[in-house]
Structure formats: structure tokens, C-alpha cells
Amino acid sequence: MKFWSPFASLLAIAAAAPNSRGGNIIRLPLNRKSTEVAGHVDMSALNTHLIGVSNKYRQTFSAFEAKTGSAHPLSGKMRSSVGKRGDGVVPLINQGAELWYGEIDVGTPKQTFNVSIDSGSTDLFLPSVSCLDCAGHKMYDAALSSTAKDELKITMLSYGAGKVEGNEYSDDIYLGGYEASNQIFLAASSYSSNFVYPTFRPDGLVGFAFENISSLEAKSVFETISDSGVLPENVFSVKLSSTSGESELYIGGMNSDLYVEDTLTYTAVTEKGYWQVNLEAVSRDGSTVASNSPSIIDTGTTMIVTATDAAEAYYQGIPGSSSSTQGEITYYTIPCNTIGSYTPTFSFGGRTFDVSEATFNLGPESAGSSDCLGGIAGMSDVDFWVVGGVFLQNVYTVFNQGNIQVGFAELA
Ligand SMILES: *[C@@H]1O[C@H](CO)[C@@H](O)[C@H](O)[C@H]1NC(C)=O
Ligand SMILES: *[C@@H]1O[C@H](CO)[C@@H](O)[C@H](O)[C@H]1NC(C)=O
What we know:
Layout (H helix, E strand, L loop, with lengths): L14 E4 L5 E4 L15 H26 L32 E6 L4 E8 L5 E4 L21 E11 L2 E14 L2 E11 L15 E4 L13 H7 L7 E5 L8 E4 L13 E8 L2 E10 L2 E11 L6 E4 H8 L6 E5 L2 E7 L8 E5 L2 E4 L2 H4 E4 L6 E4 L1 E4 L5 E3 L1 H4 L2 E6 L4 E6 L2
Parallel strand pairs: 4-9, 5-8, 14-23, 15-22
Antiparallel strand pairs: 1-2, 2-11, 3-4, 3-7, 5-9, 6-7, 7-8, 10-11, 10-24, 12-13, 12-25, 13-14, 13-18, 15-23, 16-17, 17-21, 17-22, 18-19, 20-21, 24-25
The structure holds 2-acetamido-2-deoxy-beta-D-glucopyranose (2 copies).
The site of one 2-acetamido-2-deoxy-beta-D-glucopyranose has 9 residues, from β4.
């Protein structure tokens, strides 16, 4: 089974440890695929996740507009449904999907939490001790931290059917051994059902995108750290894998053991908000199906998601392929015995990167089915590419805040 479900158990231990090169590594434990037993994709979990992705982009576009005074260039068709400034809306962040997560420390003395790592948003939230829905999660107790400061701002997060309300605090946050002083975050006093344990295994979520899409109007934890000038390089890098113990977030540079040096290729961030870059081409079987499209590199999304037309173009002409639409999302299947011949190749910065069958094939669409779900889905209200885990597991990804560029390299 190649699909990793949002609702899953997990494997390794999160640990931050300095390494020989003086950088700091956070190993990210990975959730297991709960669908292994059933032998097929958990379509309902996947659908919940993708609706969350759609909402996340709506809300972060809204935050961008509030911050900069102009619409995000990619907001296009999503604009009409974007919330207004001042309604206290904070991004919906992949409720239900835990994806990759690791530990951070908060306050003095340190309180430790597991947080989902999301390059597609900017804010940090944690459950607070006043949260009644947060049993099973570690909860932040500001009263126990001598560096905590109540920002005296109550923020309502609303998404889907639920609401999350909390107080903004600032406190010292430690990520991979580096300190973000007086970091603004949300200490939630209520969590929607999608964040309740064990549906959502990590305690909170930390965003790694830019301040321009923060609904708390704050820098990300990483921006706070990099702005303080302590990092060897203002860079963080990830290897994401579905193999236990192989995923890693590296703060302050790159782990040269994990990638093939001469394949590292950079491409400029085209708009500082998301980690947004030009996707030069998507091809399959040697023919190009999309070119020069805006794309967002998003560790918080499982699949590769694009406009329905673009997804349609990708699967067009594949024998036995079919589609099914659930609300705004269209899924595509390919016969399991041939899907390996129809994997995509992505081009960034003049280099091509292949997506393996293992990551593209999400498994049989239902128990006993001979049709397998393809890793590219269509969404009716996006007109760009969200490049998530299906692609990112195939490369080493370097997020360079200093030079405002994203690098991809082949895995070692
Ligand atoms: C974080 O998750 C890992 C893996 O489930 C677990 O071993 C560890 O104890 C968790 N850390 C905290 C602070 O809960
Ligand atoms: C935020 O976005 C605006 C508009 O694109 C840009 O001019 C500005 O540099 C961005 N600010 C930051 C901090 O990235």
C-alpha cells in the first residue's frame, strides 16, 4: 500500500540532535498508512484532507491580501470566497492530515510538543491547558513559562464545520536547537474535531512559509530564527520519506549525506508568500502536459493538486483511466498493473525530476479493485500546482530564505 492516511499510527521518535557538520537535525517521525490492513485508499480521509488544503489556500490568500493590500496573484478563482480582514480567520491547516512532524520546545523551562511541518503556511499553533477538546495532546501552560507573554488578543480560527479559538502568546521557541525569541503563536483553547487526538497525532502545527501569508501577522518560527542571525545559512531542508526513520528536517543548511551534490538545482521564489516557484514542465511518457505554471512547494499536502483541466490533461489518453468527482475534487485512477508506465516527470530550474511509481501510485481505489489512484488530483478552484508529498518524497528539498529560492536534488 502506497497511501499514507491522515488517520494513522506512527513509527519513529522525534529527536533534535546536533550533527557533525554543526547543523541541527530534526528527525521527523512519519505516520503509517492505516489503509494497509484494508488494502485500499481511505478515500474519505483523503477527501477531508484535500478539502482542508483548499481551505488553507483560501485563508492564506486572504491573509496575504490583508498584509500587502493587494490580492495574491494566484488567488484567481479563489478570490470570491476569500474571507475579509478582521474576521479573525486563521488558516485552516490540513485538519486530519498529520503528514510529517517533529518536536519543538516552548518556553522557560521548556515544554515539548510535536508539530506538523507545513511549508504551505506560516503560523504556529499549539493546544493550551485551557483546551477542553485537547485530551491526548500535550498542552501549553503559559503560567509555567517565565518567558510567556499574553498578547491579549483572542483569535478565532474557523474552518469547515468547526471553530478553534485561542489566545495569542509570545514565548521562546526552540527548533532544532535554535531559538526563536518572543515568537508569536496561537495557544488554542478549543480544537475542532479534526485536530482532536488521535485523529491528529501531533499536538500542533508549525508553518514555514513567509510572513506575508500569516494570519497572526507574525513571522514564522524559522523567519524569527533566521532574522536573528544565528544560522550558518538561512536555509532549511527536508527529506520526506514513508520509510520509518528516514525523514528529516535540517535547520541551517543541507545534509549533504542525503542528496547527490551535482544534481542540486535552484529555482527562484516568484512571489514571497508561499514557497512559490515556476513549474517549468510536467511530462509523462516524454510528452509535455503542462508548462510554465505557478506552483507551491507544500510539505503539508499529501498529493499533487492542480486545476481540474490540468489534471484531466495529465490522465488523457491513458488506457483504462477514469475519474470521479467528489465536490470540488476530481480523482483519477489507472489500472494497477500499468500505472507504473504513467508516472510524471517535473522540471524545475532546468532539471527534470522523476516521480516514482511507489509515490505516484496511492493504491487500489477500493478493496480488491484493480484500479489504482494516481497521485495527481484536480481541484475546481485552483489554477496553479500544489506540489505535495507525492513529488517531494522523490527529492531532497532545500528552502533557501536568504536567496529566496527553492532547490531540488536527487536523493543519495
Ligand atoms: C512526539 O512523537 C513521538 C513519536 O510518536 C513520541 O515518541 C514523542 O514522545 C512525542 N513527543 C512529545 C513531546 O509528545
Ligand atoms: C510581501 O509582499 C509584498 C507584495 O508582493 C512584497 O513587496 C513584500 O516584499 C513582501 N514582504 C515580505 C516581508 O516578504
